[in-house]
Amino acid sequence: MKIIETKTSDGITFNGLLSEPTDKSKKIIIHIHGMAGSVLLNKYYPAMHDQYTQNGYAFLVGENRGTGTMTEFTSDAPSGVLLAGNALEKFEDCVFDIQGWVDFALNLGYEEIWLQSHSLGTSKVAFYMNKIKPTNIAGLIFLSPSDMIGCVHDPIGQKDHDILLPEAKKLEAERKENQLLTNMLWGAEYLSAGTYLNMFGENANTAIFNFGDESLGWKVVNEISVPVIAITGTNDDGIAPVIDPKLAMTKLEQELKNSPKVKTIVYEGAEHSFDGFDNNIVRDVIQFNKE
User: Fold this and answer.
1) Is residue 180 domain-shared with residue 220, that is, in the same domain?
2) What pTM value is reported for the model?
């Protein structure tokens, strides 16, 4: 494993970790983490660094503008830094971040590139595929393709949303978009007013896996044209508060109508973090890629 870095086309430098097979390979899996994630904290990372490489795939997990709650990145801006992180990011910037890591892999000579993602990261990858329409992505691995909008309208999320949305709108009107909201979303995430409106306001581009509100449509998912494997668990709180995860995966299969190959899996007892299911994920992803 080695520490690496890439620079996006708009001048932001991100760090990452890369593990490569002993024998030279042209295949790589790039992981895009979820809200306030990191390149270290997910418990399934060690198994992936170890077992993906044993099966001939390099594994890369990199930072993005949503890494941590508030994170300072090196930037080409006059100040030399960008203060971002989950609390301050704008969803649409994910296109620059993902492309930065794809370009890094291409520059190393990798030709078969799989994008793996978790939680909010799955929405970012789907959005990236829709906006860029890349021809060099072999397939997608969705770990907990979460209904981001649905999760602020379930019984728990709605209580937070009713407080946070009006406050965010008030701060925006006062031109205080970067001010943190007083309450945490889901009791876990501090977000600025601008980020909250960007991700959970009207017409937010995070409305991608719309299990809870069919009127929001499935256009982004409908247009995915590469193989997709999607994995969740019966206790996944990125999906279960909105819809039964098994029904969600059935719906997702139906909406991936342009994907040439689709497989969905629901692990009994697995939670959003997939703790204890790391070997299951690697096994099923490798099997899917070999089929």
Assistant:
1) no
2) 0.96
